[in-house]
Specification:
This protein is α+β, with helices and mostly antiparallel strands. The protein has a single domain, classed as Rossmann fold. The protein contains 4 helices and 6 strands, in the order H-H-E-H-E-E-E-H-E-E. The strands form 2 sheets. It has a 4-stranded mixed β-sheet with strand order 1-2-6-5. Strands 3-4 form a two-stranded antiparallel sheet. The longest helix has 18 residues. It is globular and about 55 Å long. It starts with a helix and ends in a 10-residue tail after the last strand. About 25% of the residues are buried. The model has no long low-confidence stretch (mean pLDDT about 85).
Length: about 210
């Protein structure tokens, strides 16, 4: 949930700062529908086999992976959607960040921002009953939602098992979520990463 809230804060900040961004946000989905067609599924796990091998790129960025309870199944779908030689790119916040509380959390201490409070090996999902308004930033009671934290190995291994080949993996000291921006000044832990993998060109099957 914290990853999602960071994404919402970032988007709300840009919308309120720049009206052009607001119109782009409204009009871009319409333009995409006109140019590229329609959404296939709202649940990525249910994307049908008729779409296999038809895409040159699967791109995943901030606030996506934390909502997926089964990364093995997810990356299996992504792998089979890719054409031979096509790429998977993941640009996400680093799992190390989940060690640290953020401003507003009861555990947050501004004098000890680099003190690890949570376990890197946490397996239980985060439970949240508070929603947030995209535009106004107000919160409200919402149905219970669940988000997940994953170790780097929890991300890499399903990608490799899906038949994709790791091409690049980079870690960076900048924050892309706007939630852990206060840690940028330390340059001690990675705050985000970029992962690129590709599907072999030899036609070997990928995905479940």
């Amino acid at each position: 949930m914290r990853a999602f809230l960071g994404f919402v804060r970032k988007e709300a900040f840009h919308i309120l700062r720049d009206k052009q961004t607001f119109w782009i946000l409204l009009l871009m989905p319409l333009v995409q529908v006109l140019l590229f067609g329609f959404a296939v599924r709202t649940d990525v796990y249910d994307i049908g086999r008729e779409w296999d091998g038809r895409f040159d790129l699967v791109y995943i960025t901030i606030g996506a992976l934390s909502w997926l309870p089964d990364l093995g199944r997810f990356f299996g779908v992504a792998a089979r959607l890719l054409a031979p030689g096509a790429a998977l790119a993941v640009y996400e916040q680093h799992p190390f960040l989940y060690l640290f509380p953020t401003p507003g959390d009861p555990e947050y201490d501004s004098e000890n921002e680099l003190t690890a409070v949570f376990s890197y090996f946490r397996t239980a999902p985060w439970e949240e009953t508070q929603g947030i308004d995209y535009i106004g930033g107000t919160t409200y009671a919402s149905p219970t939602s669940y988000s997940h934290t994953q170790k780097i190995s929890d991300i890499l291994n399903p990608i490799l098992r899906s038949g994709l080949m790791l091409r690049e993996f980079h870690e960076y000291p900048h924050d892309i979520s706007l939630v852990w921006r206060h840690l940028e000044k330390y340059h001690v832990v990675p705050l985000c990463y970029l992962l690129v993998a590709h599907k072999p060109k030899d036609g070997a099957p990928a995905g479940p």
